[in-house]
């Protein structure tokens, strides 16, 4: 048996046991075995298979990548003590029950050691982050007030903003700006801005964003020397 210990900073948030032949899925969607409810995690982020040869990690084409001991990977074999990082959360690998006992975890009604059910059936998957919106709601737009030109309709469920040209919205490329600096995600209750990376953090109406924040009509977004405005186009 192997155990994965879920951590956020110094807090242990759960332990997940799995036997040979089982697979554990990690992501934001509630159909995963390990659900991490933060917008910088993809809906289906990665999976870990317990094969005859050992534990094997596969990144599921996540937006922000999966890291093993600080190195970005698409797939990797895992060993005891390895740290798998997804967003700001980490999964620590323990290959024996004795190693897992080294991590103290206070169980309560909201957090218990999870034993995977091999007969678990996945529910129907919700739309992928790249799927375009259906057009039944007002279109959200970010418009450059400083540093760029024009307005950009937010036509996807997740829009990436940063200095790398692979982003949906490209902003100024100072050294403090992340390759992908932040994302804007369409969720059922509105649009959320989530910080991803870089020394410079985005600000909404002059206030720095920690991890994520709900956007409101006509909010201003500042990052580096760029300034944008978010609004709903009726």
CATH topology of the largest domain: Tumour Suppressor Smad4
Tally of individual helices = 1
Structural class: mainly beta
Give the termini distance in whole angstroms: 55 Å
> SSE string, helix = H, strand = E?
EEEEEEEEEEEHEEEEEEEEEEEE
Provide the β-strand percentage band: over 45%
Major sheet: arrangement of strands: 8-7-10-11-1-2-12
Tell me about the largest β-sheet: 7 strands, mixed
Structure report:
The protein has 234 residues and is mainly β. Helix content is 2%, strand content 45%. The strands form 4 sheets. The chain has a 7-stranded mixed β-sheet with strand order 8-7-10-11-1-2-12. The protein is elongated. The termini are far apart.
Features:
mainly beta; 1 helix; Tumour Suppressor Smad4; seven-stranded mixed beta sheet; six-stranded antiparallel beta sheet; 234 residues
């Amino acid at each position: 048996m192997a155990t994965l210990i879920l951590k956020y900073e110094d807090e242990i948030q759960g332990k997940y046991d799995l036997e040979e032949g089982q697979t554990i899925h990690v992501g934001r969607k509630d159909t995963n075995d390990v659900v991490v409810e933060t917008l910088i995690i993809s809906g289906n982020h990665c999976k870990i298979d317990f094969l005859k040869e050992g534990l094997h990690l596969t990144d599921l084409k996540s937006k922000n990548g999966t890291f093993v001991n600080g190195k970005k990977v698409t797939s990797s074999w895992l060993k005891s003590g390895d740290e798998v990082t997804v967003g700001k959360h980490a999964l620590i690998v323990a290959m024996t029950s004795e190693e897992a006992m080294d991590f103290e975890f206070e169980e309560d009604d909201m957090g218990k050691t999870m034993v995977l059910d091999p007969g678990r059936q996945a529910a129907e998957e919700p739309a992928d982050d790249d799927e375009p919106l259906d057009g039944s709601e007002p279109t959200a737009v970010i418009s450059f007030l400083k540093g760029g030109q024009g307005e950009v309709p937010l036509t996807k469920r997740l829009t990436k903003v940063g200095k790398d040209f692979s982003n949906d919205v490209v902003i100024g490329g100072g050294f403090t700006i992340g390759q992908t600096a932040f994302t804007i995600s369409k969720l059922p209750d509105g649009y959320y801005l989530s910080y991803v990376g870089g020394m410079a953090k985005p600000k909404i109406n002059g206030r720095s964003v920690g991890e994520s924040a709900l956007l409101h009509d006509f909010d201003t977004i500042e990052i580096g020397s760029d300034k944008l405005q978010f609004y709903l186009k009726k």
